Structures are given as C-alpha cells and as structure tokens.
Give the backbone structure.
Amino acid sequence: MKSKLSHGARFYVVLIFAFLYLPIIVMALFSFNDSASTYIFTGFSAKWWNEMFSNEAAMRALRNTLVLAVATAACSTALGTLAAVGIFNSRNKLYKKTIMGVTNIPMMNPEIVTGISMMLLFAFSGMLVNKSNVLGFGTLLIAHITFSLPYVILNILPKLKQFDMHIYEAAVDLGCKPFKAFFKVVFPDIATGIFTGLVMSFTLSLDDFIISYFTNGPSFQTLPIYIFSLTKKRVKPDMYALSTLIFIVIFVLLVVINIVQARADKKGKSDAK
C-alpha cells in the first residue's frame, strides 16, 4: 500500500512540475527555431536571439527594467533594514504587532487593488502640484518599493531574533559607538537576510506587471509592459528569447539565494554546537 502511495505521489509531483515548467521549456526551445512558426520546429538557429539584441525598443525596455529593479532593490534593502531594526528594538508589543500587520498588507492585498489605488494617489498628488504628467520612473520606483519592502523586513527580522544582542551590548560597553557596533557586530550576522531581501526585491521588481501597468507613464516603459503591448499583434520568437533570458536570470538568482541560505543555516548550526 505504501509503495502504491509513493508511486502515486511521485507521479503527482512529476505532473505538477511538467505543468509548471513544460511551457517554459517549449518557449525556450522555439526561441532557437529557424522559422517564425510557433508550432513547427524547423531547425536550430540563433537568429531570433540576434534580432532580440538588435531590437532597440526591447533593449530600451530591458534597460529601464534593470535600472528600476536595481534602484528598487537598493532603496528597499536600505529602508527595510532600518525598519526591521526599529521593529525589533521596539518594546511596545501592541505597537510592534500593529506595524507588522501594516507591513503585511502589501503582500496580502491583490496587486490590481494596490496598482489602482497608487495610480489614484499619484494622480491626486499631481493635481495638488498642478502637474498633469506625473506618472513615470519616480512613481514606478515608489510603487515597487512599497510592495518589495515587506519581503526585506520579513527576511531580516528572523536573523535579528537569532542574534545574541548581549554581544552588541558588550561592544557598546567596551567603548564602541552604537552605529559602529551595529556594522561591526550585528551586520555580519544578519547579512544573509539582507542579501536575500535584496535579491527578492530585485526579482519582484524585475517581473512585476500589474502594479507597473497602472503606475507607469509614457516616458518610461518596463519590459513586462512592452511585451504585453506586443500581444495585440503577432508575437515573434525574439520575444521568446527575451522571456527565456529573464527566466534564466531569475532562476540563477533563486539558486544563489538558496545556496546563501543553506550556507547560513549550516554556519548557524555549527556555531550552536
């Protein structure tokens, strides 16, 4: 009976993975198709990858997306680290629970609700300063920081809880200034959480579409929005190549996160012994 359940469970897992990743494999395969056909593979060719890199509009959208993702990751990590330290050091339990509840709202809230509400906020703010074309890079950056910040905080807080604050207090008692003691003593122990939050905010910003769709302007177009605009007409295989490239980048980043977390957990266990 156990053997049958085991085989059934394995088949179910294989089915789920096939359902999730088979479309991506097919897309990657057809990005190397010699023809523009989306259902007949005529032979291997890299011409669609060459065409992708020569597509100025696509490369501009990719550059905008990378700039936005890097800026989002940097700002979210800096603000998230400060917020996590502030929440951790708070002595008021009610205040801490309230802040954590507010922090979780951007993750629990449907993206379309967040996107529409932020668009209305930016439009209203533009009306107050008599500016009609307010949507652009700035509004996109604020929106992306808003939904990335909770992930940074939730990655750093567990590391702070694991850290022995008596070490920090000892460093301060021995004459080290609080700011310097934080970077010398606390920061190395929570660095893995900060790095994980950094990479997560980067990947979240990289592939966001719904919130970006409502908060972007005509002067700044991200890659997901550019690809969406192509769906109104026939999508060429060069977009398959571009989507494959994005998938590879995100996949590599996730592997890096898992390796860093595994090493950190292993180090924590060895230190505990």
Remarks:
- The two ends are 41 Å apart (CA to CA).
